[in-house]
Amino acid sequence: MPHALIVDDDADTRSALTELIAAEGFTIDAAADMREARIHLVRRTPDVVLTDLKLPDGSGLDLFQEFEPSDAVELVVMTGYASVDSAVDALRQGAADYLVKPVNFQRLQMILDRVPRTGDLKAEIGLLRGELRRFGRFGRMLGNSSAMQTLYDQIARVAPTGATVLLVGESGTGKELAAQSIHDMSLRRKQAFLPVNCGAISPNLIESEMFGHERGSFTGADRLHRGYFERADGGTLFLDEITEMPMELQVKLLRVLETGFFMRVGTNKEISADVRVIAATNRDPEEAVAEGRLRADLYHRLNVFPLHLPALRERGDDVKLLAQSFLDELNQQHDTQKRFPPQALEVLSSHSWPGNVRELRNYVQRAYIMAEENSIETASVPLHISPARATAGTMLMVPVGTSLAEADRQIILATLEQCGGVKKRAAEILGISLKTLYNRLEEYGGTGGSVDAAGSLA
Questions:
Q1: pLDDT per residue over 364-418, tens digit each?
Q2: Could you tell me which of 21, 82, 89, 81 has the C-alpha nearest to residue 50?
Q3: Are residues 111 and 127 in the same domain?
Q4: Residues 84, 153: one domain?
Q5: Is the full-model pTM beyond 0.90?
Q6: Helix axes of 175-184 and 146-158: crossing angle, nearest 10 degrees
Q7: Same domain, yes or no, for 294 and 210?
Q8: What angle do CA 128, 129, 134 make, to 5 degrees?
Q9: Residues 291 and 168 placed together within one structural domain of the fold
Q10: Total count of domains within the chain
Q11: Nearest residue to 432 via CA among 245, 265, 277, 276
Q12: How far apart are the first and last CA of the chain?
């Protein structure tokens, strides 16, 4: 039976929480201050601690010092001060979640449902570390470099918690794989993992896609639609290209992250959502805030546990490991035995790979197709040079007072013209995905092409 420790100097709060948590199948210890809490901890290590931030003899956050990482204890802070700053600070220090007094019972139930009943999750992460030592794999990721080892260690620490994660890295570094790995190592792994590219959804539809809509709420809404937050209830929502989300929707996203409630378009009825959010961007988030692409308050709420994904050029011999892995997959799929000679792997390792892992995978596939014999020579498929940026001196004048949407439109169209209409090159220069560029061009009345459900351009 799971065990909970309640730490609060208010006797009525302790009594109410004891009754509620015991009804969820927990055994309970209760303490009025830090001294009593430490006495209980000596006797028994709890599965979850619910502690007030402000106690007569200290802060509830001081209880972090009583645990080892291997204890797998979830610490939930409670505060009577509805301050996002104090809650975010607690999450940064390692708290699994927070509750604002008076405690909402639904939120409390959601938190208790996530508490591990055994040490299985920690054991699974231990097995993954063993697989890393033997094969260079950690979850869905591959790589043995020191930069990746640092990333794996951070993922192993944050995955079992309920903390919001912000992934920052260049396009093609594997942010979705990292998000999926965090989900797979979390208590939510049996629930849905939903990836959403915020830049690939029309700004006119993104609110409906995120939160859903009621039938008849707008023209064409002929049925009730459940949005991503509703479908990800109990699981993880991965918001890629978060800086491409319209500013007005960022306000609503912030509210969901703070309260756990949202409303479908066309209704005032609130719906609860127990969703862990992992966000990602290939931009510098602080620059995005300065440029007005990302709200500062949303950035601070998402930036509870930031993770940097290293570029492939920073990962040393991981290039060889990845290239060989991609080739092994192709050989297995097609029942062949093609291979890289050592000198070919050295050539790959010396390339800068501006498109990162995605570019390397595409190159290996091209080389595999072009290889006539079993040996893959890099000379037969030259490495692409990264696209040239717009020529020096090319400028676009945007008058002060121009809306961000109109400025975006002018920059995108001007860049596309500078690239001679080559959309892939323009997307790389703009720092957005090709899919996002196609969607923007469709909005502007240009020929955007179509994109299928898998994200392939048609």
A1: 999 898 887 778 876 667 675 444 444 434 567 777 777 878 888 888 888 887 7
A2: 21
A3: no
A4: no
A5: no
A6: 40
A7: yes
A8: 95
A9: yes
A10: 4
A11: 245
A12: 54
In whole angstroms, give the CA distance from residue 360 to residue 320.
10
Q: Which two tokens stand for residue 239?
A: 């918001």
**pLDDT 10s digits, 61-106:** 888 788 765 566 888 988 775 555 666 677 777 777 888 888 888 8
Same domain, 110 and 135: no
> What is the predicted pLDDT for the residue at 69?
55
Last residue of a domain, one of 117, 135, 150: 117
Rounded Cα gap, residues 88 and 107, in angstroms: 17
Query: CATH number, domain at 338?
Result: 1.10.8.60
> Which residues, including other chains, have CB under 8 Å from residue 297's CB and lie 6 or more apart?
84, 254
Q: Range of 35's domain?
A: 3-117
Residue 445 has pLDDT above 50, yes or no: yes
Residues 127 and 203 in one domain: yes
Structure tokens at 266: 């066309």
How many angstroms separate the CA atoms of 9 and 56, rounded?
7
User: Three-class SS of residue 97?
Assistant: strand
Residue 204 contacts by C-beta under 8 Å, 6 or more apart in sequence?
none
> Side chain identity at 274, as an amino acid letter?
D
Cα separation of 332 and 118, whole Å? Answer: 38
Q: Comparing 18-22, 101-105, 289-293, 318-322, which segment has the lowest mean pLDDT?
A: 101-105
Q: What sign does the dihedral 229-230-232-234 (CA atoms) show?
A: positive
Q: Could you report the per-residue pLDDT of 97-130, keeping only the tens digit for each?
A: 888 888 888 888 888 877 765 455 555 666 665 6
Whether residues 77 and 153 fall in one domain: no
Is 336 found in the same domain as 304?
A: no
For every residue of 298-367, DSSP letters joined together read HHHHHTTEEEEPPPGGGSTTHHHHHHHHHHHHHHHHHT---B--HHHHHHHHHS--TTHHHHHHHHHHHH
DSSP 404: H
